[in-house]
Amino acid sequence: MTTEPTRRRLTERQADTVRRLTDAAVAEVGESGYEGLTVRNVARRAGVAPATAYTYFASKNHLITEVFWRRLSALPPVEADGALLERVTGTLREIALLVSDEPELAGACTTALLGTDPDVRELRERIGVAIRERLRAALRDHDDPKILGALELAYTGALVHAGMGYTSYARMADRLAEMAELILPDPPE
């Protein structure tokens, strides 16, 4: 059995259906944007019945949040080598750039992650924990809760800032590196 979206464990066949739906959602949002995205259109593109799509995803927010979760989950483990600033900025950059080359998807992810349905909330919590753990791994010996919290807030703020159109998602990665320099302790001399 494969652990797949929020609500349950899936057989290989069901996991394939979910993969087709998430792939179709990326293509659909790329063509029609978040506003034009519907679970029905995604189902059509994936070659499944709308009822089947709704079996796995309660809403378009749930579907897009699942796309982000899958990309985040697919990242390799945080490298333990290098200086503190390099590890942390590399980790922040990697997370920030997950969807940066797909502007419509990036905007959709920002909007979807703010959704209020229970499946989105559960995935948002998983995403938050995964990001926290990646940052904690990058911080290693400097795992101060205040520093970790500041980095999490910097990431979240940057995501919303980009989602509001104040900066690009690609530029967000550079801004996060600047924030990390301000937040992290100076290296010993």
From TrEMBL:
Residues 38-57 bind DNA. Signal peptide: none annotated. InterPro entries: DNA-bd_HTH_TetR-type_CS, Homeodomain-like_sf, HTH-type_TetR-like_transc_reg, HTH_TetR. Keywords: DNA-binding, Transcription, Transcription regulation. The keyword DNA damage does not apply. Residues 15-75 form the HTH tetR-type domain. One of its GO terms (molecular function) is transcription cis-regulatory region binding. This is TetR/AcrR family transcriptional regulator. It comes from Actinomadura darangshiensis.
